[in-house]
Design brief:
- The complex is a heterodimer of chains A (about 120) and B (about 110).
- Helix content of chain A is about 0%, strand content about 50%.
- In chain A, the strands form two sheets. In chain A, strands 2, 4, 5, 6, 9, 10 and 11 form a seven-stranded mixed β-sheet that branches.
- Helix content of chain B is about 0%, strand content about 60%.
- With about 110 residues, chain B is mainly beta.
- The model of chain B has no long low-confidence stretch (mean pLDDT about 90).
- In chain B, strands 2, 4, 5, 9, 10 and 11 form a six-stranded mixed β-sheet that branches. Chain B has a five-stranded antiparallel β-sheet with strand order 1-3-8-7-6, with no helix packed on it.
- In chain B, a hairpin with a 6-residue loop joins strand 4 and strand 5.
- Classes of the chains: A mainly beta (about 120), B mainly beta (about 110).
């Protein structure tokens, strides 16, 4: 099946610093990627939809200036958590849709666990 | 009312049992139905993908969709401890831009 690589898998940073998470589709082209946040024992919360070559679409309540998303190519999207604070600590997961794949079929990265001290 | 309702569990069963996981939904425009499995601290992986109503079988897994009742199920036969994970149902409309996820059901299969 299609592979989505997410890096780093875990990161610890100091409060006030910025952290970048990468999401790559390794063997397919993804015009659309999605970023989620997941709290312990809870489901996925969609943060934003990342479209190649255009601005991301953010869900209600998600601060676009805090969570910067860039989708510069058909295989790479990045999420930058700016001026991170302890409340931003969470599990962040990306998913990608194969532009030639079935509707609704998403491939997920392994997730990135962010801990802000 | 949430668009997709899923009992979070946890559901605990003995090894070898048949497991039934379910979701209900309210949006009649959903046409694509998926089940994802998520192990702890990992990203979800696609298990089953179904379009519209009907059944689909893959090994020990069977997915059922009943659009008239707005109800989908995932059955796991001969459950194994390695099946212990969180199972997420997910749905998309035709045009399928956004996927809506259920809360996920945590399953524990005891050896």
């Amino acid at each position: 099946g299609a592979v989505v690589s997410q890096h780093p898998s875990w990161v610890i940073c100091k409060s006030g610093t910025s952290v970048k998470i990468e999401c790559r589709s390794l063997d397919f082209q993804a015009t659309t990627m999605f970023w989620y946040r997941q709290f312990p024992k809870q489901s996925l919360m969609l943060m934003a939809t990342s479209n190649e070559g255009s601005k991301a679409t953010y869900e209600q309540g998600v601060e676009k200036d805090k969570f910067l998303i860039n989708h510069a190519s058909l295989t790479l999207s990045t999420l930058t958590v700016t001026s991170a604070h302890p409340e931003d600590s969470s599990f962040y997961i990306c998913s990608a849709r194969d532009r030639q794949g079935a509707i609704g079929e998403l491939f997920f990265g392994e997730g990135s666990r962010l801990t802000v001290l | 009312q949430k668009e997709v309702e899923q009992d979070p569990g946890p559901l605990s069963v003995p090894e070898g049992a048949i497991v039934s996981l379910n979701c209900t939904y309210s949006n009649s425009a959903f046409q694509y139905f998926m089940w994802y499995r998520q192990y702890s601290r990992k990203g979800p992986e696609l298990l089953m993908y179904t379009y519209s109503s009907g059944n689909k079988e893959d090994g020990r897994f069977t997915a059922q969709v009943d659009k008239s009742s707005k109800y989908i199920s995932l059955f796991i036969r001969d459950s194994q401890p390695s099946d212990s994970a969180t199972y997420l149902c997910a749905m998309s409309e035709t045009g399928g831009f956004k996927t809506i996820f259920g809360a996920g059901t945590r399953l524990f299969v005891k050896a």
